[in-house]
Specification:
Layout (H helix, E strand, L loop, with lengths): L5 H15 L11 H4 L4 E3 L5 H14 L8 E17 L4 E16 L5 E15 L3 H30 L6
Parallel strand pairs: 1-2
Antiparallel strand pairs: 2-3, 3-4
């Protein structure tokens, strides 16, 4: 009699589906994303958010080696809009819209290998309490910088497959 185990089938199903779609891990040893580890020098953005962004990108791609092949120019802009919720209490909702433009150049050939703009948003609520407002604002700006860094990291990791080695 054939013994059918549903648990085994359920455990194997995701592997079969992923294998059938041509999925390849981006950060696998020997992959293109691993090839850019320590090979990208990101320009510093002179702001607290720029520092957070740079730190997150260097955590993902490693500190640049002295002979880093690629140079990345970053342009970060953050705008803030306010929506007053309750005028009498000063309660308001703030939305931070962040846009980052990234351009990466191969220092050997001078060719641009990557150029893209990405956007994300973060928000916070403010009230009449000044200290709480500033803390919430700083936290939202940090979350926005980290979200933009994650977007940039993913796009670079995926796109780096086409870069010269």
């Amino acid at each position: 009699m054939l013994s059918f185990d549903r648990r085994t089938l359920i455990a194997l199903l995701p592997a079969v589906l992923v294998a059938g779609c041509g999925f390849r891990p981006v950060y696998k040893a020997g992959s293109a994303a691993r090839g850019v580890q320590g090979n990208i020098r990101f320009d510093l953005i002179d702001s607290p958010e720029g520092f957070i962004l740079l730190e997150a990108l260097e955590r993902r791609f490693g500190r640049p080696r002295p002979d880093a092949r690629y140079r990345a120019a970053l342009d970060l802009s953050i705008t803030e809009t306010e929506l007053t919720l309750v005028a009498s209490s000063g309660l308001a909702r703030h939305t931070l819209s962040g846009k980052i433009s990234v351009s990466i150049v191969d220092s050997k050939s001078g060719a641009r290998v990557f150029s893209q703009s990405m956007r994300d948003t973060a928000g916070y609520t403010s009230s009449a309490e000044t200290l709480m407002n500033e803390t919430a604002r700083q936290d939202a700006r940090k979350r926005l910088a980290l979200a933009l860094a994650a977007l940039v990291s993913r796009q670079i990791a995926v796109d780096s497959v086409t870069w010269p080695t």
